[in-house]
Specification:
CATH class: Alpha Beta
Number of strands: 9
CATH topology: NADH Oxidase
Shape: elongated
Order of helices and strands: EHHEEEHEHHEHEEE
Radius of gyration: 19 Å
Number of domains: 1
Number of helices: 6
Helix content: 25-40%
Strand content: 15-25%
CATH architecture: 3-Layer(aba) Sandwich
Distance between the termini: 30 Å
Length: 232
């Protein structure tokens, strides 16, 4: 089990704007006051974010397509969806991870809404969404780099709570991952606390049926001064 902490993240202004609904294909340029507020909140977020993560690469003992289950080492069973089965065929390992930004950013966001500073609350929330996704990508980039060194392929990322993986999978993940080590808890409704947390899984193998089309995940990782970054 490996952990990461205090990873400085590069948050792209354009990504924050995208999460706020400003898209290139739409003619709705943000006003200067919005841009200034985003920049102010990005500076605030940098001080509030307490980036932490935990991940582990599990060996595959048995992959049952018919039963839609994977047996990992230590008799760990995971249920799969049809989409996951399509992408995970051929894997010999499964990497699972959890990342979080900590409680401070979420607390400040709530305070903005309580004070009726709705614009700042929405903007800081969007910044948190971008940051936690980038932190997840940083963690995955470590896995991808190690896989490349062993001449192995990786699959796309799967996240509970999407159309590809039911939110109830969170319980399975928290049963096998010591999330308490990074101060993340799971509610009865399978939501993580702090809210700006993310869990994920990717497959690793020699000859995958559906390997990731992204040959260099480091190119889209937004961690600053990442020791694993190597762009030719």
């Amino acid at each position: 089990m490996k952990t990461i902490s205090q990873i400085p993240l590069k948050i792209e202004e354009s990504e924050v704007l995208r999460y706020l609904g400003y898209r290139k294909e739409r003619i709705n340029e943000p006003k200067e006051i919005i841009l200034n507020t985003i920049r102010e909140e990005m500076n605030i977020a940098e001080k509030l974010i307490d980036s932490k993560g935990i991940f582990h690469v599990f060996k595959i003992v048995h992959f049952s397509i018919l039963k839609k289950k994977i047996e990992l080492e230590n008799h760990i069973l995971l249920s799969l969806t049809d989409t996951m089965i399509d992408y995970l065929q051929g894997i010999s390992r499964l990497a699972i991870g959890i990342v979080t930004l900590g409680h401070a950013l979420e607390k400040q966001t709530s305070e903005y809404f309580q004070e009726k500073e709705y614009s700042r609350g929405l903007i800081l929330d969007a910044i948190g969404t971008v940051a936690v996704r980038n932190l997840s990508q940083y963690e995955i980039s470590i896995i991808c780099r190690e896989a490349q060194q062993m001449q192995l392929q990786t699959t796309k990322r799967f996240v509970p709570g999407t159309h590809e993986w039911d939110i109830k999978a969170q319980k399975m993940i928290f049963n096998i991952m010591p999330a308490y080590q990074i101060d993340v808890n799971l509610t009865d409704s399978f939501m993580m606390v702090p809210a700006k947390s993310l869990s994920w899984a990717i497959g690793i193998g020699k000859h995958l049926v559906n390997p990731s089309k992204d040959d260099n995940s480091c190119r889209i990782c937004q961690a600053v001064n990442c020791e694993f970054r190597k762009i030719d």
